[in-house]
Amino acid sequence: MVAKNHRDVVVTRGAIESDTISSIAAKYWAPFTKETHEKFDVKLIDTIYENEMLKTQFNPKKIMMLEFSQYLEGYLWPNYKPEDSSKAYNLSIVVMVNEKFRERNLDSWSSFTKQPEQFPAFFRKVLELSLDENSLSPSEHCALLTFLVNSFGSVETPIVHNETRKLVSIEIWQGLLPSQREDLFKKQKKLRKIWDNVVKKMSPDTAFHREYLWKLIEKFKKTLQHFDGSEGEEEGEDPVDYIKYCERFIELLIDLESILQTRRFFNSVLHSSHLLTNCLLSPLISTEAGSLFFQLVQLLKFYARFEIDDLSGKQLTHKEVSEQHYKNVTRLQKAAFRFFKENMKEFYLLNVSGVDTRRALQKQFGNMAHEEVYRFAEYLHLVPEFGDDTIEQAKLLSRFSHEYLVETITLHCERRPNQLTQLNEKPLFPTEKVIWDENVVPYESYTGEGVLALDKLNLQFLTLHDYLLRNFNLFQLESTYEIRQDLEDVLFRMKPFQHESRNETVFAGWAKMALPIDHFQITEVAKPLVGEKSPAVVRAVVTVNIGRRQDIRQEWENLRRHDVCFLVACRSKRGAAGLKFDVRRPFAEQIEVLSVRGCDVEGMLDQDGHILEEYTGLEKKARITGDMRKFRLLLDSNQYRLDMEEANKVDLYDTFNLLVRRDSKTNNFKAVLQTIRDLLNTECVVPDWLTDVILGYGEPDSAHYSKLSSAVPELDFNDTFLSFEHVKQSFPGYKVEVVETYDKSIEPVPPFKLCFKELERRQDVEVKPGDLQTIVVTPLVRKKETPYPYSPNKNQVLFTPAQVEAIKSGMQPGLTMVVGPPGTGKTDVAVQIISNIYHNWPNQRTLIVTHSNQALNQLFEKIIALDVDERHLLRMGHGEEALETEKDFSRYGRVNYVLKERIQLLAKVEKLAKALNVVGDVAYTCENAGYFFRFSVFRVWEEFLAQVTAKGAAKLAEGQVAEIFPFKKFFNDLPDLFSGNNSEDMKVAHSCWRHIEQIFEKLDEFRAFELLRNGKDRTEYLLIKEAKIIAMTCTHAALRRNELVKLGFRYDNIVMEEAAQILEVETFIPLLLQNPQDGHNRLKRWIMIGDHHQLPPVVQNQAFQKYSNMEQSLFARLVRLSVPNVQLDRQGRARAQIAELYQWRYKNLGNLPHVDGLPQFQNANAGFAFPFQLIDVPDFNGQGETQPSPHFYQNLGEAEYAVALYTYMRILGYPAEKISILTTYNGQAQLLRDVCQRRCESNPLIGMPGKISTVDKYQGQQNDYVILSLVKTKNIGHIRDVRRLVVALSRARLGLYVLGRAKVFMDCLELTPAMRIFAKYPRKLIILPFEPHPTTRKHNERSQDGEPMEIEDTLHMTHFVHEFYMGNLPAMKAAYDAAMEEYMEAQRILNPPIDETQMEVETEEDKRRREALERKKKQEMDDKKEADIHFEDMDHEMQEPVAPAASAPPAPVPQEPMQQE
Predict the structure, then answer these.
(1) On the CB side of 730, how many CA atoms lie within 13 Å of its CA?
(2) pTM for the whole thing?
């Protein structure tokens, strides 16, 4: 429920400074007044608790100020003594920990882990307080429950986990009925022995922990009794806090049930306590105030009955679940036969399906006597034995009412719907009921305080089914949130109002993404398939007027098959006079949405009612006259069935008045949901070595190569090492020696094969412990594959030991996780792993997956440059167009390459045939060439070998090999092929033969492309057979999963870049793009490369991000679970001083040698006294941050300062493309673009900077110089998330200048390490305007050419830059003119004047080129007949709404000198 919600919990700097908390903190615990702190006063804690927490009803502003002041770290915990701690003291700690968890990204337990001695006693105090029924208010109890929720969710923190596991051990079964324990022992016979041992060790000291949850449940039941169905307000009570307590308690139980370690023994307790019965019979559940409570109970009910064996963790099959259900009902029928043989014949003689429905059970037992129903419950071991004592019987009957017993038996025996069946019958499109239900899809105002009826992505999951189901639900709700934003935006723009005379809604506005519906009709409802309830297909036709504007018409006419649209029925809550809608006010108060239904577009209809097929460039699009267009739609058949079952008087399908479409890039949710649902309906076969790791159980290192029997002791590292010395440096602590057979007098040269003794697991060889740390190096000599000169591109990177360990681990089977801090060469490591796998295992196929197209292209461009055959590379998806290469690596591009290569190879076969004097068309097809090779070429080669074998070799004179070599004519383009030395000549002859063999091997591979005539078939063959390295984004993998599986796609290895930026489910789907073979997944390696200390996946909705933890990536979760990972520990991006700003976040992160050696890193930034500064920017025109619209933050002073600083750098001579201006908010980015366009764009001497962007969007990119605007002046804002801070500070290579309100950021605990480094330099910008760029001055030297200048504020900076510009204008113009002259001269050299005598020839050549280009485009369009799917390239940013604006244009390219005013 939503009540007592503190809406605005933002704490401003002014509020902090004016509040008494700040003065108290400065006096007692603030870090900046450490020397003057007064003595610890325990009474102060009680006072603060009473006045600042309890009396303010735990006002979030007060709590935030206390937490921000470091109350817990500086005062509460360092002075904590359990024996002297009061209720207020313990609760103060609890509230501070809860606040840290509410902030989400703070290390909540760090204070306790540093001083863990008192934690067990503190935790015991918290548990005791949570059972106190008298001295605490419901709000305080809520805080304690929240603390428990947070504690049970922190299994990765040992001191917390050690305490929570005591509460859910097998000892809690002491409270079960003996008969219930016996039933459990019958299921698992080993349990009896374990229980007997536990009972022997039980002592009174452990009684509190084993009884705690039982007592807490009883306390909850008493609280639930507060609600008797009457309105509490009438009696002067406020039931809101009690409702919140109940909601929070159910959240705790859901968390316990959804983690196997806590569920294992607690699930029996939950059922034995009949808590679900109490909840379902409570009057609260049927009230409006209890709507959220009802949803939470349903979620608890789902997990309480989850299809899993609680003890083993094994997923139960549908058959096993059915057998257990039949067993329960049969037992009930046996009880009827035993006690009521005559009266209940019909009940016990019917089959199970006749009596197991809720309705049948309620009817049967509802009419029975109270005592009779109790007998049934006793027989089912649901209640204590009835006995013969009438007094005890009366007590039991009083304790368990008739209604209570009937509900308990019903819950135990009723038929449970199959989870998969429920999912398959669930509509994929959201409806208006879900879209605007704040309990399910909250608005942006969610602060992290309340409970929501949502799944959570915990550290651990019950089963793979549970893992996928939670992700499915959350992905669907996140999509629903985005759909709601789009619909509200469209409806506000359309301005619906009620017509005065006609009873209909008309629209006074306009939106490009929506059209009023002229006519809508259901045209087909097909009968359901066998075994299904919903129609097989539901088709409809909608008629709309697409208007006259050409661009909008085209967008609507270009709607393609499977595009998703929404049918909306809406009306305004205002009359015709009130058309001024206010987006700041709640949407529901202004517009009433009657219904929303999603649909797929099947196609646009022509005038005859036929679907217009999607056309290619060769076909003319059929013209349709007029403005009316008809589209055939496919409705969700599950939703249609549900709508028809409701049987309303008004058919909602007749009420639709608006058709809404969405941007194609963000409209792929249905395809992803369909993929997840398909995975849930198939047997997800994850590799055995990976299943437990993904679910979060077992040993964290169980998937590491060192623990796998399939580890490979000998590996060919190809070109990884640059020298033998490099090998030694790469394995510190290992003894590196050359293989015994190698000549020690010769320095070993790469490539090397390395044998790791620690991985040799032969049973027959005993290895001494000292030899385990030994690496045997074997230098390899590659056979010459061709007589032609060939020098493949080789690795030139001197990999560090950490990088080499990552490469070694990536080549081994199993899971490899590489943590790559900024600038540490993550991409180079990934490329080397891929290259080494390709050369070591040529038949294996590697799948490359990244979050963004940009990262994928960067990785792919480096792979292209390696020694990898082009025909084995494939880049899937639309991002291929952005590859910076002339070659086309898309599916069609690779097919064209193969066909072109085939023609060239067949030409070589033709040449070979002439060289051997073979007559016939042997090079007509690949098949002919194969026959030619087998029957002619191979025979000639064997005859040659026979002449030079051991028998006749001795008789051959020197030079005879060259004479009798049969392929001399074929290689006549190689002069001096043979030397005359028979031994050397034989090596040359073999290399020639290998060259010929390769020709025919390739032709044999290409033969399929001759047999497959269709372009689509050829691309599919290329994908599943030919390509060895396939690259795609995670979203493309999710969208195309079904298609890839049907094609028989296969792969052995996955390399996943940007793994920390990918949602859990989008990380998981690439594991299952292939069907299992013989029940096993063929995946051998999974390499995940990412950085969990940088920004996580984007989740737009705050509730899903904070409450459901949806922003958690699988990579970050595995790191939290202590899965082994390799951290790259040397950065080479930034100068050492800038790198210090974020190195503290990583363990032992140092610098590569070139950072300390190259001049660009050692030289100072011209015109600046320091390489980086935090520049304090005061108010400009009396204003700091502003908020023109909700969540749209701007700071004009910082924007003007940033643009002036950029202009100053340009005047000094800094290149524009080397400077980026970044900010932490979209509103400020827009303002920066506006100011920059107004001040710089039209001036060719200045121009636009290389990039203006937000920090979130700039992740993964870098530039030499970065100007960063922090915007906020009232409070810290979301830069408090240390991950965002790391990204912001690590984008610059040489210079970083941060603009912000220094005092706002300097006192923040999370930012302290970085702020201390910033504090080394002044808070005002110090410049050297007399020093032009570039300079030879070292960064640690003081300039001797003049005195530095201090900039006071924005006004000072802008005035100075204007004067500085005017003073340097003549010199800048002269430099500009010189540059333009140089440019024009270069153009004249590149494009010389056309000779008139060659004019005709040149024109013909141009014509041929043009025609060839047109033919190529025509062919490509023809091949691309299959519809391209737009896949989602998710914008990696959880940001505020952006005001519509044009994107910044690129910096102007000089064309001709411009007159400067």
Answers:
(1) 22
(2) 0.87
